[in-house]
Specification:
Radius of gyration: 17 Å
Helix content: 40-55%
Number of domains: 1
Distance between the termini: 9 Å
Number of helices: 9
CATH architecture: 3-Layer(aba) Sandwich
Number of strands: 7
Shape: globular
Bound molecules: adenosine-5'-diphosphate
CATH superfamily: P-loop containing nucleotide triphosphate hydrolases
Largest sheet: 5 strands, parallel
Order of helices and strands: EHEHHHEHEHEEHHEH
């Protein structure tokens, strides 16, 4: 089954975690614009320099930069067995531009899944989030039993710069102002599926699969 999904949700809603599970389940390509920007920063490329100040402070990267990147990715993405966009689109212009680019490639979205999580849980998840600099796996400090090292490759885990308190506040505000209106946009297009994003990754994943079932039949 080919699946073409957008994972939607506030910072800390669990988009990246669910995307990894969906990728394994459906064999679809996972594209996280945040990960692509973080990689560009690490490689110190021109793109990395362009996005660093926005990202570190918790602001959105300008639409034009995002769309240049996504349009490049899409060329390869549509050749694959479906895709999962995580963290994109984040503004109405990005969504309109995305739709246009997909239709030029004779593709359309299967669904947009919104992971619904309350604000205080979002903050708890983000402040405990750690990432492996080597394999990009995500963890929460509460579920690490052997200290802050990656259980897969033993690398010392890191905290994202934009997971610091001030940047988190900005990201949550930015989400409410610029990204939340997309829910109405996709609801009108009859693409929106909403699920409760609280609980364990496995519990959320089970909800995700069951809500997707009807659109996959
Ligand atoms: P989260 O969803 O937890 O905020 P992401 O990795 O998706 O994490 O995004 C981190 C940052 O990357 C955002 O705060 C923003 O600066 C930038 N970013 C990622 N995707 C986009 C996008 N589609 N549009 C604008 N900025 C983006």
């Amino acid at each position: 089954m080919v699946i073409r999904l957008v994972l939607f949700g506030a910072p800390g809603a669990g988009k990246g975690t669910q995307a990894a599970l969906l990728k394994e389940h459906f064999g679809a390509l996972h594209i996280s614009t945040g990960d692509l920007f973080r990689r560009a920063m690490k490689e110190k490329s021109t793109l990395g320099d362009q996005v660093r100040s926005y990202m570190d402070l918790g602001f959105l990267v300008p639409d034009e930069i995002v769309m240049n990147l996504v349009r490049k990715e899409l060329v390869d993405v549509v050749k694959e067995n479906g895709f999962l966009f995580d963290g994109f689109p984040r503004t109405i212009p990005q969504a309109e531009n995305f739709e246009q680019a997909l239709s030029e490639m004779h593709h359309s979205l299967t669904a947009v899944v919104s992971l619904e999580v309350e604000q205080d849980l979002l903050v708890r998840r983000i402040s405990g989030r750690r990432v492996c600099p080597k394999c990009s796996a995500l963890y929460h400090v509460d579920s690490l039993s052997h200290g802050e090292v990656c259980p897969t490759d033993q690398s010392p885990l890191e905290q994202r710069k934009d997971d610091a308190e001030e940047a988190v506040k900005t990201r949550l505000k930015t989400f409410a102002l610029q990204t939340l209106p997309l829910k109405e946009y996709y609801r009108e297009k009859k693409l929106l599926l909403q699920i409760d994003g609280s609980g364990t990754p496995a519990a959320v994943f089970a909800r995700l699969l069951s809500v997707l079932q009807p659109v996959l039949d």
